[in-house]
Amino acid sequence: MALTDSFSGDIKASLIGKLRRTGGGSHTGVDSLASEPSFALTDGTGANQAAGWFSATFTATTGGVTISLASATDPLGAAGDDTPTASPDETQLRALLIYNRDTTNYVTVTKGANALTCLGTTPGIIIPAGGFFLLASPIDGLGNMTDGTDDEIIVTANTANCSCEITYVFG
After folding, report:
1. In a 10 Å sphere around its CB, with 0-12 CB exposed, 13-18 middle and 19+ buried, how is residue 22 labelled?
2. CA dist., res. 121 & res. 142, Å (int)
3. Could you tell me which residues are beta bridge partners of residue 34?
4. What is the CATH number of domain 42-170?
5. Helix (H) or strand (E) holding 11
6. Burial tier of 17 (Cβ tally within 10 Å: 0-12, 13-18, 19+)
7. For FRET with 83, which of 26, 90, 111, 153 sits at 20 to 30 Å CA-CA?
8. pTM
9. Which residues of 60-72 are buried (b: 16+ CB within 10 A; e: fewer)?
10. What is the pLDDT of residue 91?
11. How far apart are alpha carbons 4 and 169 in whole angstroms?
12. Please, is 82 exposed, middle or buried when counting C-beta atoms within 10 Å of its C-beta (0-12, 13-18, 19+)?
């Protein structure tokens, strides 16, 4: 019998906090913050569906690391040798998480020569030390990614090298 795969998962982000006030007469109490967007993904390539993922740790350098999100064999180029769970070529990006694990330096995410469509024309996202960036696109996926055409981002360290983690889901 042949082996088959079926994807399911959740993309979640949350900001939760409380502000407690004491003293000041009638100005006591608790204000709460709760913002928790999320969506579920099922198997496939349509809206709210995914077929696979990629996750790896790599070292961002001052020269930049080009990441080809649609590559089935070598997304990180010289920066790593991990491969996605399935081919992302001609699929849509459902979620992208880039985590800067460095405790001192920031990284910048920009478009590559074959730019990822969702980055627009003059992008630049700075991820501070210890910070992360999350993009979620469950419905339209921002257009098909095509290996070598419209799938690249560049992650560049501001000084020295930064350990980063990238995870993305596609379908």
Report:
1. exposed
2. 14
3. 16
4. 2.60.120
5. strand 9-12
6. exposed
7. 111
8. 0.90
9. bbeebbbbbbbbe
10. 93
11. 18
12. middle
Q: Give the angle subtended at the CA of 108 by the CAs of 12 and 169, to the nearest 5°.
A: 35
Tell me the C-alpha distance between 166 and 155, whole Å.
10
Looking at residue 120, its pLDDT comes to 66
**How many CA atoms within 13 Å lie on the side-chain side of 134?**
10
Question: How does DSSP assign 17-54, residue by residue?
Answer: EEEEE-SSTT--EEEEEEE--EEEEEESSSTTEE-EEE
Torsion on CA atoms 117, 123, 126, 131, rounded to nearest 10:
-30
Cβ-in-10-Å burial (0-12, 13-18, 19+) of 107 comes to buried
Q: What whole-number distance in Å separates Cα of residue 111 and Cα of residue 14? A: 27
Residues of the chain with pLDDT under 50: none
Q: Sort residue 64 into left (φ over 0), alpha (ψ -120 to 50) or beta.
A: left
Rg of the Cα atoms in the chain:
19
Q: Which two tokens stand for residue 171?
A: 């379908």
Hey, where are the domains in the chain?
42-170
